């Protein structure tokens, strides 16, 4: 069973999620945190959520503010951390005592930055873990918009995403050692050899900074590319579900 849930973050932003309720009452749930300018309704997210719920673990697919069905807002890491923490608190209020997080791409750094003792297990798909200078990737028009308006527009999936200067600065200021040092649970990272957006090397280095028992799963020929629902997911989803079954305790 899938329940559409409307909730707010601490700032009052209106957010939307889809909760896949398990027929087995195990009080375990995983929040699926999507990547940059993505949304909760990607086929891979739905498939993962369905597989988790079939295994007795509820799954909560959320749209970060400014994405999907959630209210319009500028995209920032800080705001998405607030969204994720609010989703965790909501699940706790719903009596889910064991909560895990799946963070994809930008959702990976959001999950790591949001980490606290309420998160009992974590899996990251091709996560952002180091500082990135995205200014160099902007067009002259986008740079001009950032200077004048404070943000530029990214058109994707028939939606206009507002990307502010604050987000670009947040990416530049990511301190990998500081972020990973506070995590005290084993983490599984899944990364593809064909990822040309976030290099595999980033995760190979990050895994060495995470607690004992953490694991890096390298997937041959898996690209970043918004992680389409391809044959790689036939490998990745079972590995992800097995990690949560083992570590969500």
Structure description:
- The chain has 249 residues and is α/β, with parallel strands linked by helices.
- The chain has two domains: 2-130 and 176-247, Rossmann fold (3-Layer(aba) Sandwich), CATH 3.40.50; 132-173, no CATH class.
- Helix content is 34%, strand content 25%.
- It has eight helices and ten strands.
- The chain has helices at residues 43-54, 77-93, 106-114, 140-149, 165-172, 176-181, 200-206, 233-247; strands spanning 2-8, 14-20, 28-33, 58-63, 98-104, 119-125, 151-156, 159-164, 187-192, 215-219.
- Helix 2 (77-93) packs across helix 3.
- The chain starts with a strand and ends with a helix.
Q: Write out the CATH superfamily name of the largest domain.
A: Alpha/Beta hydrolase fold, catalytic domain
| Overall number of strands | 10
CATH architecture grouping of the largest domain = 3-Layer(aba) Sandwich
What is the CATH topology descriptor of the largest domain? Rossmann fold
Helical run tally: 8
* Main β sheet profile: 8 strands, mixed
Strand order of the largest sheet: 1-2-4-3-5-6-9-10
Q: What fraction of residues sit in β-strands?
A: 25-35%
Helix content: 25-40%
Give the topology string: H per helix, E per strand.
Answer: EEEHEHEHEHEEHHEHEH
Our measurement of the CA-to-CA distance between the termini, rounded to an integer number of angstroms, reads 23 Å
Low-confidence stretches: none
CATH class of the largest domain: Alpha Beta
Q: Measured on Cα atoms, how large is the radius of gyration?
A: 17 Å
| Number of structural domains | 2
Q: Give the integer mean of the pLDDT values.
A: 95
Shape: globular
* Class from secondary-structure proportions: alpha/beta
